[in-house]
Specification:
This protein is an all-alpha fold. The protein has one domain (2-157). It is 85% helix and 0% strand. The protein has 6 helices and no strands. The chain starts with a helix and ends with a helix. The model has no long low-confidence stretch (mean pLDDT 88).
């Protein structure tokens, strides 16, 4: 019964990667730590599983931020990124959880419209930002799936 609950928490963590209200991979890792400390009996396998999960967690978070930053490096001015962040913050408060994405996109488009003029060029820049963010989300989602796969292997071994 305990392993089932851990698995359900991990699925919620997967959803959290896509819905920015939940902590995502942190929830998956916390469930894995809980499993190792509370559910499993004897042996060191559980701690090896958690160590691998923790390494995947760190890698996923690093890639979540590094890949979009690298992809956008030098392409967008700091002002655009700041306005996108401000739009995301306002959107999150006004219309959680989707407002984060909507506000960020609108903030990017407004900033790029001011810089490049409204229309195709501003839209193209906004799409580049969305693609970069999507790449970061994909990296975190991949890390979460690998963390869960690691836990499933550990579950089978213990």
């Amino acid at each position: 019964m305990g392993s089932l609950l851990v698995g359900l928490v991990m699925v919620v963590g997967l959803v959290g990667v896509l819905v920015p209200v939940l902590p995502g991979t942190a929830l998956v890792l916390a469930a894995g730590v809980g499993w190792a400390l509370l559910v499993v009996g004897e042996g060191t396998t559980r701690f090896i599983v958690v160590a691998v999960m923790a390494a995947l967690f760190v890698l996923g978070i690093a890639l979540k931020y590094a890949l979009p930053g690298r992809r956008l490096s030098g392409q967008l001015p700091r002002r655009t990124l700041l306005l996108a962040a401000a739009g995301a913050a306002v959107g999150f408060v006004v219309l959680p959880p989707l407002g984060l994405l909507i506000g960020g996109v609108l903030g990017t488009y407004v900033a790029e419209s001011r810089r490049l003029g409204p229309g195709r060029d501003a839209g193209r820049s906004t799409i580049q930002v969305l693609q970069a963010i999507g790449l970061g989300i994909l990296a975190e989602l991949t890390a979460a799936v690998l963390m869960i796969a690691t836990w499933l292997v550990g579950l089978a071994l213990t």
